[in-house]
């Protein structure tokens, strides 16, 4: 199952890569190889894409870590307080049942 954050990061990264590819194709003319500024621009684009990829991977890993931590905390709470969890589930079920029966 993919997560919305991962999908957003992936689509943003793909869009950025398309943009950089388009820009690179515009400045890839062999006539421009002798212009030092163009060489520097190409290198900056490559470095920037590398940094964006690293940042996207790091953000996805951090989001996954936070989700796992939250799941562990919820699991710990459910094990430490099973009667509270059961009571909350019973209450929610009763409220939903009551609301559905009034239709």
What's the SSE blueprint?
Layout: H1 4-26, H2 36-80, H3 82-101
Helix pairs in contact: 1-2, 2-3
What does this structure look like?
Helix 1 runs antiparallel to helix 2 and helix 2 crosses helix 3. 85% of the residues lie in helices and 0% in strands. The protein is built from three helices and no strands. It is mainly α and 103 residues long. It has helices at residues 4-26, 36-80, 82-101. The mean pLDDT is 83. The two termini are 35 Å apart.
Q: What order do the SSEs take from the amino end to the carboxyl end, as H and E?
A: HHH
The biggest sheet, with number of strands, parallel, antiparallel or mixed sense and barrel status, is: none
Radius of gyration: 25 Å
Number of helices: 3
Q: Rough shape? A: elongated
Strand elements, count = 0
Helix content: over 70%
Low-confidence region ranges = none
Average pLDDT over all residues = 83
Query: Which secondary-structure class do the elements indicate?
Result: mainly alpha
Strand content: under 5%
**How far apart lie the N and C ends?**
35 Å
